[in-house]
Write a structure and sequence with these properties.
Elements: H1 3-27, H2 34-50, H3 60-88, H4 100-118, H5 122-132, H6 138-145, H7 149-164, H8 177-180
Length: about 200
């Protein structure tokens, strides 16, 4: 290990010792679980440690808060995806009949789809979600977004294509989403995150 990387890790370790408890107390305002708070606070410092050539920070608490809030939003997004998946299961499907590993695979696949859709232009994403979540027809979507039906079709194809480029876990028959045959239209509408 070079002297530079040692001083970098020493610098981050010093930040950790001075600000970790403060960051945990700050995160407790948003989370009920002490384990989740500790995970997010630790990941905040891990990201600092992984950043190359970290210059001395004038306002370390501001930077730590920014990183922690980004991680907090990712945490809420993962939790929302998991909740929507579980709520979208048909009533007659016994949740206990599926292993925790299988549920974790499905949640991971949903996160990959969510990440793939996030990189799409807003109109393409909106078109796909109106079609798949709200169940609107192509003419209804065209009217809602003020675009032609041909664009609706193109946008939906683009979104599906992006989803197909996601990890193989998403493809039908691999024991995750495809094994359940649950249409995406069963997912309830997204709810706002707690403030």
């Amino acid at each position: 290990m070079s002297g530079t990387s040692l001083s970098h890790s020493d610098y981050v370790a010093g930040l950790f010792h001075r600000h970790y408890e403060w960051l945990c107390r700050r995160l407790m305002r948003h989370l009920d679980s002490p384990a989740s708070v500790e995970d997010i606070a630790s990941e905040t410092f891990a990201q600092l440690l992984a950043s190359p050539n970290l210059a001395p920070i004038r306002e370390p608490r501001a930077l730590l808060t920014t990183i922690a809030h980004r991680l907090l939003y990712q945490f809420w997004r993962r939790r929302d995806l998991e909740r929507h998946y579980l709520n979208g299961l048909p009533d007659d499907l016994e949740l206990h009949s599926h292993s925790p590993e299988n549920r974790a695979q499905v949640i991971e696949a949903l996160q990959a789809v969510d990440a793939a859709l996030d990189r799409l232009p807003s109109k393409v994403k909106a078109t796909f979600l109106l079609s798949q979540i709200n169940g609107l027809t192509h003419p209804q979507i065209a009217n809602e977004l003020g675009i032609c039906q041909r664009s609706v079709s193109d946008y939906i194809n683009t979104a599906f294509s992006r989803c197909l480029k996601a990890p193989p876990l998403l493809r039908a028959g691999n024991g995750a989403i495809g094994a359940r045959r649950i249409p995406i239209t069963t997912a309830p509408p997204m709810t706002k995150r707690p403030s």
